[in-house]
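User: I'm writing a short report section on ligand binding and want a predicted complex to refer to. Could you take this sequence and NAP and write out the structure as tokens? A short remark afterwards would be nice.
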Amino acid sequence: MDLKGKKALVTGGAVRIGRAICEMLADGGADVCIHYSRSYDQACSLKDDLEKRGVQAHIAEANLMTETACTELMDKAVALLGPFDILINNASVFNKQTLDEADMDVWMGEMWPNFFAPVQLMRRFAKQTSKGKVVNMLDRRVTSLDTACVPYLISKKALEEVTRMGALHYAPGISVNGVAPGAVLPPPGKDEQYIVDHAGPVPLEVRVTPRDIASAVRFVLENDTITGQVVFVDGGQHLGNG
Ligand SMILES: NC(=O)c1ccc[n+]([C@@H]2O[C@H](COP(=O)([O-])OP(=O)(O)OC[C@H]3O[C@@H](n4cnc5c(N)ncnc54)[C@H](OP(=O)(O)O)[C@@H]3O)[C@@H](O)[C@H]2O)c1
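Assistant: Sure. The structure tokens for the complex follow:
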């Protein structure tokens, strides 16, 4: 797929990795709908920035905790920008909770934005186009059993499985892939020391940047022969040894 002239919806697109993905899409010539929940000011500044790059940009607010919110977001986005060619399921919540610590509120607080919302948005996306691309943002830990963040990791593991099922289900018109970052940015509210303390050994001894993640997203979007794949962008961390 040539990004030029395509229309993309990026959830959680106003800040951090989502912002880098929006910038990459605009640099490729795609029009972008930036979804946000709380980052209104950042969404507005990104919209201005993308428009200066010569593409159309819109913002759309939604708290992705219900099916209705997901449906309304897709409907609002389509009304603003027209049918979409690209859906990037990037919005996410990350909390460290063990099996004992996580009550049902915690579980649903992770499962909705990280799993149910991407599934609902993918279904709505497939209703408004017969040809397109979905990229689900995963985590390099989907290959491991990190017992410190159980609801988060289960939500990402479930999203990985539905990435493969969606790839089969929506072929031949729609491809569905995953991009699994390693430690890129500390969680909101934490500083760089968090990465030093928690990232663990990286075989390639590199620090992954938001631009590295955006570049992997671009790769799976531009290649029309890839579906049901997970691209790990983590310096090899998913291979094990820590
Ligand atoms: N950062 C990393 O090092 C890392 C590592 C592994 C995987 N990942 C994955 O890569 C993706 C991007 O990472 P990130 O760290 O940039 O993400 P993030 O900052 O944790 O979250 C991205 C955005 O998700 C939105 N969001 C959260 N809860 C929401 C809700 N209930 N409804 C709607 N939107 C909601 C927020 O938007 P607002 O700000 O507008 O409220 C938030 O800014 C995520 O899927 C993450 O799991 C990141």
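A remark for your report: The pocket of NAP is lined by residues 12, 14-18, 36-39, 62-65, 90-94, 113, 137, 139, 181, 183-185, 188 (CB under 6 Å). The chain has one domain: 7-239.
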